[in-house]
Amino acid sequence: MIRVLLADDQPLIRSGFRALLEIEDDIEVVGEAADGNEAVALARQLRPDVALVDVRMPQRDGIEATRLIADDPDLAAVHVVILTNYGLDEYVFHALRAGAAGFLVKDIRPEDFLYAVRVAARGEALLAPAITRKLIDRYVARPPRPGAVLDELTRREREAVALVAQGLSNDEVAAGMAISPITAKTHVNRAMTKLGARDRAQLVVLAYESGLVRPDVT
Length: 218
Known about the structure:
Blueprint: E1 2-7, H1 11-22, E2 27-33, H2 36-46, E3 50-54, H3 62-71, E4 79-84, H4 90-98, E5 102-105, H5 110-121, H6 129-140, H7 155-164, H8 170-177, H9 181-195, H10 200-209
Parallel strand pairs: 1-2, 1-3, 3-4, 4-5
């Protein structure tokens, strides 16, 4: 059973998402929060698999709430997905840097919404190649900030990260490197550990910001 926490200051939005989620046999809404402080408190109390967090909330916004959840070692299994009305904007970018696994626009189709919740629960990033491209173009295509931590990556780990930064799945990384999916996952997980990335979304951001991968200039 996938346990979901809803955090949005609009009761109508929360009730709509709850109604959609609770008709599914494998999903359970375990709590609702109306502001960022409550979202963090309920995440600590309920330990959901997925926390759907509105990016703009009173008391404490979704970015800071995400950061507090992501930085709490006891909540390492909680996958935060940011909810936004505006698509990929500066708020979403900061939320990804803070530890969000991805983001959803609130007018998403119901079937895509449910699929996204299941993807997040598996610990995968909600960053399709098109979204990754926009992320790079808007916010990451800036002077890199290289760090010594990059020296810790092996050649194969660097190759794996480069493919992840293109928005590829582990299976696609494996195909691109001519290795097994298990080996690809190992390379990706080791790179995440060495770079201090909570998940694949953060790995993409760190890969470009560090200069490990550079956006194409066309």
